[in-house]
Amino acid sequence: MLNNTSHPFRKKWGQNFLRDPNIIEKIISSLKPDKQDHILEVGPGDGALTHSLYSKVYKIYAVEIDPLLIQHLKEQKFPNVNLYTCDILKWDFNHLPDTVKIIGNLPYYISSPILFKFLAIKNWQRMVLMFQNELAQRIVSNQGIKSYGRLSVMCQVYAHVNIEFTVSRNVFYPKPNIDSAIVTFIPKEKKNLPDITSFSAFIQQAFSMRRKKLKNNLPIAYKNGMLDKLGEMRPEELSPKDYITLFQRI
Predict the structure, then answer these.
(1) What is the DSSP string of the chain?
(2) pTM (predicted TM-score)
(3) Domains of the chain with bracketed CATH
């Protein structure tokens, strides 16, 4: 790993490097790695997770936006790690095999779009992702809570989600301003779930004005009599299951 001063940290990319070996092993353990696994690692940074993970799996596809860090990772000569210099939102997921597990520390400013992209991958088996704690709480929030929103619905419709443990800001360099949390995602059976692209657009519209009632956010459906009593409710009052039912009705 790089020492604390040898890398020019890029704030725009949310670079904070994990420095606690015990936390690293806990994160990897949450992934439940197997020698047959193909792993997508997002933002490997200076290789803290990669170094401990590569010997436990078949192959790692590591996508890192910083070319300086890619060069550092190349120097480590990991035998089964394919390195890609790219923004994960622009990366071609066709590089991946049929089944994959995903691990990484997602930068706060683009966590949601990255997560939506991951949920749409056809055959992911498990995801272990680190978020700022505030965002992790939004992912697992129940209906009726202020933090419950579009992200909560999308994640809970397509996956079983759980916060495994929190990670202190003190185990990173540079130290961020907030603690983080490790969240695991286990996919739900897709045959019973709505198409993710159209459902995502529907949920975005349903939450377009949080303080308004659904009849204001979904006016055409309301006009056509499809909302019934749900039209008088606010978006955060409906459960993920309610949204599936409403989407199928509309």
Answers:
(1) ---TTSS---GGGT--EE--HHHHHHHHHHH---TT-EEEEE--TTTHHHHHHGGGSSEEEEEES-HHHHHHHHHHT-TTEEEEES-TTTS-GGGS-SSEEEEEE--GGGHHHHHHHHHT-TTEEEEEEEEEHHHHHHHHPPTTSTT-SHHHHHHHHHEEEEEEEEE-GGGEES--SS-EEEEEEEEPPGGGS--HHHHHHHHHHHTSSTTS-HHHHSHHHHHTT-SGGGGGS-GGGS-HHHHHHHHHH-
(2) 0.91
(3) 11-191 (3.40.50.150), 196-249 (1.10.8)
Q: Provide the pairing of β-strand 124-132 with 100-105.
A: parallel
Closest CA to 77 of 56, 47, 97: 47
Neighbours of 6 (CB within 10 A): 10
Single-letter amino acid, residue 234: R
First to last CA, the chain: 52
CA distances from 53 to 15, 25, 82, 168 (A): 20, 9, 13, 21
Query: For 64-100, how does the pLDDT look when each residue is reduced to its tens digit (9 = 90+)?
Result: 999 999 999 999 999 999 999 999 999 999 999 989 9
**pLDDT, tens digit (0-9, with 9 covering 90-100), for 226-246:** 998 888 999 999 999 999 999
